[in-house]
Amino acid sequence: MKGKVIGTVQFLALFFIVQFVVQCKEEKKQDVNKDTSTTEKTEVKKVIDFKIIKEVPEGVKTPEGMVWIPGGEFEQGAVPQDKMAMDHEKPVHKVAVDGFFMDITEVTNAQFSKFVKETGYLTIAEREIDWEEMKKQVPEGTPKPHDSILQPGSLTFKKTKSTLPNLYDFSQWWHWTIGANWKHPNGPDSSIKGLEDHPVVQIAYEDALAYCNWAGRRLPTESEWEYAASGGKNGTIFFWGDDIKELSKTANSWEGEFPVKNTKADGFENRAPVKSYQPNGYGLYDMAGNVWEWTGDWYNTNYYKEQSSNSIVKNPSGAATAYNPQNPYVKEKVIKGGSFLCSDSYCASYRISARMASSTDSSAEHTGFRTVATLQMVQ
Asked: Of 65, 211, 239, 373, which has the fewest beta carbons less than 10 angstroms from its beta carbon?
C-alpha cells in the first residue's frame, strides 16, 4: 500500500506540477511541432497601423523601479547562429511592439512581502490542496494520495551525489517538498530573512497576477519580454552578444557538471540578489539567468510555425489557446529567461529566444516574475 501511495504522489507531482522542467531535454529529443492532431488554431492579427510608440510622451513620469522600453520592430525567435536553439523557438517571425515600462529587476522578497502584508494574500503553495480540483487535471481514475502526503508545498532542487547516466529523468533532482513556499523557498526549514533583495520565488501564475493587480501592473507578453531582453542588440544569441565565454560575468547560471557540482564561477550557487550582474542595454537586470519569469502568453507548440515571416504582427498577445501534446491535461503559460539551474548541458535558457512552458498552478524555487506597465496604465 505504501508503494502505491508514494507512486501516486510522485506521479501527481511530476505529471502536472513540473512539466516545464522536462521540456529542457525532451524538446532536444524530438520536434514537438510535428504533432498537430486536435490542435486549436491560434489567432494571428496582421498589422494595419504601423505607427509604433517609441518615446515617452511629454509629461508622463516613469514609475519608480521601472525603465522605459522604446517601441520598435524585431524578429522574434532563435537567431540562425544559435546552435542550442530548440524547435519551439522557430521559425523567427516579425513583431512590432509599442513602448512600455518594465521593472528594472525581478520582483523581490521585500516587494512581495509588502504586497502580502497589505492584502493578506495566500499563495497557491500555502493553500490547502483541493483534491476535487486537482483530479480534473490528471487522467481519469488516478487514485487520491493519502492525506498525510496531500499537503501544501512546492518544488525544491537537490543536487545529486554522482554523475547521472541521463538527464531526462528530472525527478532525480526535483522534489515535491511539503512546507516549501515563497517564505520558505528551499523547504520548511529555510527562510528569506536577510534575503530581502533576492527575487521572490515559489510563485505560481495566479500569484503573479494577484501582485500585478495590487501594483497596477501586468505581466509582459512573450514578445515584450523577448524584445526587452535583447537590450536593443537585435540578432544576437545573448543580450551581451554571441560569446558564451562572457556567461559567468553576466548571468547567474549553473556552471559545472549538472546537477552534481556547481563551480560557482559566476559567484553564486543558488539565487543571487537582484542587480548582481551588469544590466542589458535598456538597463534591465537578470533578463538572463537567476530565476525564470512568467509571461502572460499561453504556451502553444504550434504558435510560432503559424506566424508568417512576411508580415509584421503588432503587440501580439500570443496563442489564443494553450496546446502542448506532451502535457494535454494542463494549461500552460510561457516562462522566459532561464535560471540559476540552467547549464549548457541541460537547457541553456539564458539565451534571449529560450522559452519554456509551465502550468499555471506550478511553483518552484527557480521561478519568479517581473511586471510591465503601458502608457494607459500610468497616465
From this structure: 65
